[in-house]
Design goal:
- The complex is a heterodimer of chains A (about 290) and B (about 800).
- Chain A is α+β, with helices and mostly antiparallel strands.
- Chain A has helices spanning about 15-25, 35-40, 80-85, 85-90, 90-100, 105-110, 110-120, 125-130, 150, 225-235, 240-245, 265-290, and strands at about 5-10, 30, 50-55, 65, 70-75, 135-140, 145-150, 155, 160, 165-175, 180-185, 195-205, 210-215, 225.
- Chain A folds into three domains: about 5-55, Uridine Diphospho-n-acetylenolpyruvylglucosamine Reductase, domain 2 (2-Layer Sandwich), CATH 3.30.43; about 60-175, Uridine Diphospho-n-acetylenolpyruvylglucosamine Reductase, domain 3; about 180-290, CO dehydrogenase flavoprotein, C-terminal domain (Enolase-like, domain 1, 2-Layer Sandwich), CATH 3.30.390.50.
- Chain A has a five-stranded antiparallel beta sheet with strand order 4-5-10-6-7.
- Chain A is globular and about 60 Å long.
- Chain B has about 800 residues and is of the alpha+beta class.
- In chain B, the strands form nine sheets. A seven-stranded mixed beta sheet of chain B has the order 3-7-1-15-12-13-14, with helices on both faces. In chain B, strands 9-19-18-17-10 form a five-stranded mixed beta sheet. Chain B has a four-stranded mixed beta sheet with strand order 22-30-31-32, with helices on both faces.
- Chain B is globular.
- The chains are: A alpha+beta (about 290), B alpha+beta (about 800).
- The interface between A and B is medium-sized, with 25 and 33 residues.
Amino acid sequence: MKPKAFRYHRPADKADALRMLAEEDEDARPLAGGQSLVPLMNLRFAAPSALIDLNACADLATITVADGVLEIGAMVRQREAELSPVVIEACPLVAEALALNGHPATRHRGTVGGTIAHADPVAELSGVAVALDAEIVIERQGGRRTVPAADFFLDALTTVVEPGEMVTAVRFPVLAPGTVTAFVETGMRGHGLAVAGIAAALRIAGGRIDWVRLAAIGVSPVPVRLAALEEALTGRALGEVESAIAGVADPLGDADLLDNLEGSSAYRRELVPTLVARAVRVAVDKMGVAA
Amino acid sequence: MSDPRPVFRHIGRPVPRQEDDRLLRGYGAYVDDLPEPPGTLYLGCVRSPVAHARILSIDLAEALQMPGVVAGYTAADLTPSIRTMEPDRPKPGYKATFRDVMPTDRVRYVGDTVAVLLAEDPYLLEDALETVFVDYEALPVVVSIEDAIAEGAAAVHDDIEGNIPFAGEYKTEGFDAVFASAHLVVKDTFRSARMAGVSLEPRGVMASYDKGKGALTLWSSTQIPHLLQASLGELLDMAESRIRVVAPDVGGGFGIKAHVYPEEVIAAALARRHGGTVKWIGDRQDDFVTSTHARDYRYDVEMALAQDGTILAVRNRLHVNIGAYACFPFGSSAEAGGGAIYLPGAYKFAHYAYATHSVFTNTAPVGVYRGVAAPIAHFAQEGLIDRAAAALGIDKLEMRRKNLVQPEDLPFTNAAGITSDTQSHAACLEQALAAIDYDGFRRDHPRGEIRDGKRYGIGIACITEHTGQGASRYRTRGLHRVPGFEGATVRMTADGRLVAAVSQSTQGQGHLTVFAQIIAEHLGIDPSAISVEEGDTATTPFGSGTFASRAAVVAGGAVFRASEALAAKLKRIAGHHLEVAPEDVELVDGEARVAGSDMTMSFRELAAIAHSLEARPLPDGEEYGLESRAFYDPPNVSIANAVHAAVVSVDVGTGRVAVERYAVAHDCGRMINPMLVAGQVHGGVAQGIGEALMEAVVYDEDGQLLTTQLLDYLLPSTCDIPDITMAHIESETDATLGGFKGAGEGGVIGAVPAVAGAVNDALGETGAFVNQLPLRPETILALLRPVAD
């Protein structure tokens, strides 16, 4: 468990980092919290030619709310975002998802941009991004693009980020007043990697579900937006939630399902409706508190 | 033993561990922390990526050109200078087994070492290892027990027909008639997962050769320094007097480090060849691939019962997948032999038959691991009692009460021929039931109830633990390469302080503390003032090592005996100068005191006399010096016992099992330190919960290991372990010095059947019973489905 030799750069700010990325070869990688990349390097599953260490880039570590968008800089620590009153106010699902991501120790190093860019199939925040139609900000020297989360994840550990580019921020929508959210997951352990998890946000009007967003993590190489379930639940009374979910024959559609030591694809298929029902119930239960 | 029982002052107290201060402050020194002599070379191993293949060629040319690389050796270069390991010498019922530390002809599992490199830097070493090219010709692979014993299966070793190096059979007289006459026979096939020991510190070794003295010093993260020394002498054809083995601080072992490994032998051979220091530090991946695995059993068990629930007879057909090689020193039969004799356990049925087999496969060698075969033996036994109770309509507790060995049965020889003078199953059962509030649970959770999406169940396991096995026991088991006895030296230095050297090595158990307590008991001095040393063959007496719950019993006995002799000498010297009989002298608070008077001599004075450092002479006939050495070999085996009680929840939507509450009533004879006994039980229960619910080493059908990191091999975290309530019972055995029994493994032995039993209970009216570990959520969900639908 010794990494291959690599070049190391420590830029002072974003512009510096983008310049170094541009100057390095295409196997260079930005280093954020290092909670996944460094173990992968030690295992030699990853062997970047150079690391551009973003940890000194204060301008990548800001949280702002403007024009209905919560923008979290790539280098904001997961723990900071999880506990941030601004994040909790604007988009509590982000904080709820991060609370399940790794452990407090890893969240103190791990970053919001890092978990999104790493694109692990079980990363909770990726599910939130897909559920809420977040946008991923990707920059290169002299260029910037924003990509909808639905288009960002290509495969396990693979995204649309090109050599020379890096994720600089994630833009989540500020949730409308009255929105309730929940992130539920299950795994082999009481607290650990999930086999499957559900990000849910919804609003109730007149006793019926008025608006709902759902995505699943862990079941597929990339987060899966559960559009059929959203459609089935919209307009339903709270008492009809279970039957509405049961009425959707194949909530995962043609998604490519994971099948591994933690569980078969059949098991994951079975978990999704169960966890969606739980997520809706947990979210709805919060209305009492909010009201 | 002498009666009445003495009142103890130091034995039995929860003395804080003297080990903790330096370890918690970061002053521990594990193998990788030791200073490296100048010129230390790093050893890297080229591992086979295939499970079974002929080695056609090995090309080290490119690697030898890489920066930092000093030398490289193929098996053909090195193996001729190292003797073949012989874990099993031929004897009736046991086939001889062999292992070259580097195989020359063919590889037998993913991880077999075919070549090694020496480099000046561990990073450059890994770069160079990637360039070694080995050409293999694939051979047929056998992975599972069923693969290996099938008709026409490929042979892992050409000289072992049917891949079975050890088979044993046993049947009580009259078994068949009793079995045939039974009212009911329940049976099932019980399978464990294959497990990994996963100590916090992986294995590591550093070997230094002094060319001038022709002497080798080897520091290893080992549980068996003396056996490793003997083994190195044998394999390298060196005098043991020229070999010193040191186990420095060792970060956990659990049995995995109680084996001699190829890397230890290769590092020593290369240190000798290069006349310097060679170091190999295993990482987590090395550990999963090359450290011994554990368990991997198939138990086919049948239980015959009378209509009233009395167990009449048990038939046990056992197969153990021992991987590609037998391990030194336990050989091929430790698991298969253990699994056969552990099964009667706490129950007094009279008839037992077993047929047990060790099976070679193309997987990593399987060795001893905390609990050995006992957790699964009890998983099978308690599982069958649950099935029988359901079939007969008898309460599960009633079934157990009816069949447990009772106080009036003692001393008791069980159906496997194991005798013990003390057991306390019935008392432990009642205490465990009280601690878990069994009746309250039954009141609060009506059968079949689903509360908040969960079913709840309660499981009870009555277990025995075979501890403190001595030389005679290992001979009976055919483990001729395990000595069985232990030794200790207790010495008073010339300044009147106490030091001891014990033949054991510690991996965190608290040996130094408990041995100091035993010495303190005899010498009348605070345990914290006693220095105990272990793990260095140059300074400690010969012994077997730390495994099989034996340190407190066997080494404890040696310490007990050496302390007794030293105390007697001090009393003789003091009595001489105080002009009283030695038996009128007491050793208290660091001085010798005439009972009932104020006449005293300090230990400092006595030590000065004994070391001829003052005018007063020794009594006539007394030798100079204050050093006492003793060896202790206990009679056969001491049976400790416990009852574990677990409450679990089963999520009916996901199948996930969580252990909600846990209680243990535990009896390991006289406790030396109840706090450390509790620590042993707590840690064991945590490992047992891992074994029951999540831990599994997995190979695919080609023999590729799929679990090579902690991401894939799941260990329980603190979130998975509930608080554990403990009750202690102390049934003091007269069979061992001090009345001690071992306590190292009972935690894991009890947790596996208790958790499985609780899941059976939660499955309730579904009629399903678990028979395969780990209890993965997916498996449990499938068992629940008939009800859910």
